[in-house]
Every structure is written in structure tokens, then in C-alpha cells.
Amino acid sequence: MVVFVSVRPGGIAAIATAVAAAAAATAYALKKNRVEETLYGTEIDEEPPIPPEPPANEHPVLRILVTYVVEPLGILKRFIYLALLFSPVILLAPIVFFGKRRTYMRRGVKICGERAGALWWFDLLVAQMERAGPTFVKLGQWAGSRHDLFPDELCARFSKLHSSNKPHSMKHTRRVIERVFNRQFEEVFTEFDTTPLGIGAVGQVYRGKLRKESFDVEDMPTDVAIKVLHPKVHKTIRRDLEIMRIFAAVINALPGMQWVSLPEEVSIFSDLMLSQLNLRHEALNLERFRHNFKDSGGVISFPKPFMPFCTTDLLIEQHIDAVPLHFFIDYGSEAYDRRIAALGLNAFLKMLLLDNFTHADLHTGNIMVRFYKPSEGGVIRRTLKRIVRRVDPDAVARDAPRTANDSVVDGILATTKDEDAWNAELEDLDEQGYCPELIFLDAGLVSELSTTNRANFIDLFAALTSFDGHRAGSLMIDRCRTPQLVVDADGFIAKIERIINNLRGETFSLSKMQIGEVLGEVLSAVREHHVKMEPDFVNTVLSCVILEGIGRRLDPDLDLFRSSIPILLSLGCRLSIGDAESSHLMGMAKVWLYAEARSLLASFTTSRAVVDAFVRYGWISE
């Protein structure tokens, strides 16, 4: 989870390269007529032939009773429970106007934060939401990313929300597995750890080994992770969403609340929640990511789902032994930190710019690291690989034969309680020639730019690349959902213009830029002036801030702009005049010219890395 500080000028520059350019990526993605709708010849919406759940009684009278009596009573019961739970929050709301304000400095300017009473009330709200169940936990986590709607201090607390769910029974897990596989539990697994690896708001994860002789399936993973939804979670969440829709409509009718567009926000959140209630969506996302990264040389991986038996309630996927990224964040590794940071940045930019299909839940818990050893060649070849690997971690991995060794992961994990032993182990692996590989998990949340946002972002991109802050601010107002409700439009444009003007001399090195603070200032201006942002934009901003947080810890000197040059150029090759107006292409041309000039001046010591990156994204041939 990400905690936003507040915000200041200095980092929307990196977003200008990543966020705005994402719009251009959409032009290519849409041009392909949704080729991604099929993967390996299988229709996205096609469900596998699995045994259905026990049929419900279809008698029309019973159906009417369930629809018009049982379900409304269930919603009423849930409403009474939530009303009692949140009544202290409502009754104590006036306390937000009491107490001393917290003050802090930002770029030499004194900033007034929330009052002490408001901070106490925020803590109470978050505690009650945690008790309210999975819908409200997810709602809080989602709200934690909406700095354009809520105060920074509240978003920081929301982002730390976690589920307090108790594990559901093994009996339920067995029942789901036996129904899906249509055979006894013991016929499915040779081993099954009944202690969950993790318990989330909507489900829990186990580890097991499939009984391979029971299945006539090629290339089937045997060591698997098993995700099972909690019982009755569908019913609880659907009732909560119905209650939210009613309250959103009531609040939206209050004076001054129209700019928030609560009914639309609830609709967006509902789509997010309902997509997480179908684990087959996550399996399809994993397949699409695997397809998008099939030419990465294996340095970026996603677990392989066992598609014939992935359903609404059950996800079976390959279990990969790897080291959680947070150990590298906590302990560091002189041998591998920079290479891991570069791999992560390249993967993110590819998702964002080239694929228009971005993992929307990037945090250190969803990123793992394992190690492989490229096959040995001649002495000269090995020496060259070692030199190039230092400056570009995946250049030598592409299409290279490799040997994996899971015992390496076990050896690293054995040192996680001793920092000296940790560093010694990694230095030894580096001496032996091992290279890092990133594993991305939990693909339930993804983001794609819509058709409308494509045009909006391309226009904004042109304004940003020409450092036209006035036009950028005007576009943000003109293209927002409710431009008629914006407060002091001229003041908002002036703030955006000041931020962009401060970017002219900025570097894109993370050590000299605070992306989170810059974006925080932009979103604070958005909130203050009631400029209703599209969720697609906010989600992309959030992903960039998470990337910055991880990248800064691993490699403070990571250069976002230089890393994005080859991808931007590769994207440009895919776009045609028919996909975007000439003015948009001219804006991209300006960025490319500036980027190449900057790269030429700044990359004498690592020019090989740039060349290899250009090769990797198809801009030049080997």
C-alpha cells in the first residue's frame, strides 16, 4: 500500500513520460481491434465445462419470494447492522472541527494539515470499516488511492486497511474443489497444506501438489497455489453495494456534493468488487500478462493458471518459489538492487505504454524475486555478459538458455534474519553468475485506458511535452466529468502552470525528484478546485507513485526518462497517422528529440545499456 505525503512540484515530469504517453499506447491497443480478446485460440468469455453448483429451486413462486421478500429482508438486516456499527462515526463527526491543526513544511512553505479531532475521527472511521467486512475493507483501500477526493491524512489511513477475516473452514474448501474437479479431494492432490498461506477480504490461498496421473493435461503445473473464495461473500458484497448505491444517491442530492459524483464512483467501485468475485477473471489476466511478456526472455514472469479448472470460486495456478521483494527493500543488495529496479521499471513501462494493460495492484507483497543462471559459453562471451549485465540486467537474458535452481531461493530465505549473511549470500550468487527474475502475483486488478480517455490523454500529453502549463490546466478542466462545477478555474490553471514550469529544469532521476509529492500537490489542487478526475488517470498516477517508492529504495539514481525512450520509440513505430492527429504525433516527436539529445549527453558511461534497450524493444536490430 502507498502512503501519500501531500504534494509539491517536481515529479509530474516522470508521469509526463509514463502517464500521458499511456494515452498514445491506447491508440495502438484499440487499433488492433482487441486482438487480446482471444489468447492462444481460446475466447476470453468462454467458460470451461465444469460441473455446475447444485441447482436452485426454479419454481416461480419461490423465485418471487426470494427476489421480493428474502433478499430485501437480508438487505434490511445488513443495513441495521451497518447502521449500528457506523452510528458512533456519524454522531462524532462534528469533532473534525476541533483540535489544533498539524503543520509541516513543504519546499519551504508552511502547510496546515487536518485538525487533531479530524485525525482521531479518521482513525475511528477506518477501525469501523475494518469491522464491517470485505466490501468496506476494499472500499477503504480503493478510497486510499483517491487523493483527488479525500484528504491526504485520511488516504494514508485507508491505504493501511487490512482484512480481519477469520479463515473459512477446510470443509468449504474441500466442497468447492470436489465440485469443480468432479472427483474426491484425495484424487486431486497428493499433498495439501491445510494452513492458508494468506487470508484476504474475499478469499484465502493454500499450497498443494496436484496428482498428475489424475489429469490428462500437457504442461500441467504440479506445485500449485489454490485460491478459494469465502462462503457467502457474493451475497454479502452484493447487499453492501446495494446499500451504498442508495446512500450515494441521497448524498449526491445534497448541495455542493454533485462534483464528487458519488453514484458514478459507487458504480466504478461495484465493477471493481464484482470482478474480484470471479477468480476466472484473474486467471485470464494472468494468461494475458504471460502472452504480453512471452518475449521477455523469462526475466519477467507470471504464474501459469490451470485454466480448465479455474472458475468463479476457485483459482489454481503455478506456485513459484521466490524471495519476497520486501527483503531487498529492507536489507538491500549492492549486487542486485539496481538490476531489480531496472527490471521492474522496464516491465511497468511496457505494461503502461506498449500493452495498455497494467497491473493495478503493484506493491512489494505482489512482487517476488528468484534467480537463474544463463548457460555458460566461451570465456569471452561470459566476460561480455558480465559487463553488460551490470548496466542492463535483462539484455543478456533474452532468448538465452538458462538453468533454474530453486535451492538458491531456499538458501537466500535461510539468511533473512541476518543482514550480513544475506549480503554475503547474494554476493556469492553474483560471483557465480546468477541473474534476477521478477515474478508478479495477484493479477485480479488491472487497468486499461478507455477510448474516451485515449483522446484526452493524448491532448494532455502534447501540452505536457511542450511544457504548456496553461493548456494542460485548461484541458484538465475541459475534459473532467463536471467542468461546470469547478471552483476558481483560473486559480487551478495557475497552479498547474506553476508546477509544469518548475519541471523545465528537473531531472528524471529519482534521487533528485519526489514524484509522490508532486502528484500529491496536483491532486490536492484537483480536490480543492473540484476538478473531477477520471478514475483511469488516478489509477495510473497511483501505479507511478508505487513504482517511485519501490524504485527509490532500490536505486535512487534510476532514470525514468532514459528508460522510457526505447519504449516510446517502439510505440511510435506502431502508431500511424490514422491513429492520431498530426499534432499529437508532433508532440511525441518533441519528446523523442529531447529525450535522445538528453540521452546522448548523459549516457556516455552506460551507452551500451541504452543500445541494448533499443534492441530489446525492436527499435534497432542486433
TrEMBL record:
Keyword Membrane: yes
Membrane spanning stretches: 79-98
The ABC1 atypical kinase-like domain, residue ranges: 160-370
Family: Belongs to the protein kinase superfamily. ADCK protein kinase family.
One CC-aspect GO term: mitochondrion
The organism's taxonomic lineage, starting at the top: Eukaryota, Fungi, Dikarya, Basidiomycota, Ustilaginomycotina
Keyword Membrane found: yes
Protein name listed in UniProt: ABC1 atypical kinase-like domain-containing protein
This protein's UniProt keywords: Membrane, Transmembrane, Transmembrane helix
